[in-house]
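Work through what follows:
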Amino acid sequence: MFMLEDLRQTKVYQEALEEGEIIGKQEGELIGKQEGIRSLLSKQLKKRFGDIGIYQKQVDNLSVEKLEMLAVSLLDFQNFNDLEQWLCNRG
């Protein structure tokens, strides 16, 4: 009879396990990066504009790439309307 322990010792099982660990690590790193950028950007927005109200949820849902774009664009914003426009056009 083929037992679970026998399966665990096969090359296919070991490769699948290793690939799963790599993918899990990559996903964890991406989520960590996203959370770190989101946290820093939220603090910057709050310091610059105060409570951004309904736009906070939009910022929270941005991808890593868009969070990075917003962080760079924030340097050029003159007022809250610039943030609103950015989120309406790119968010």
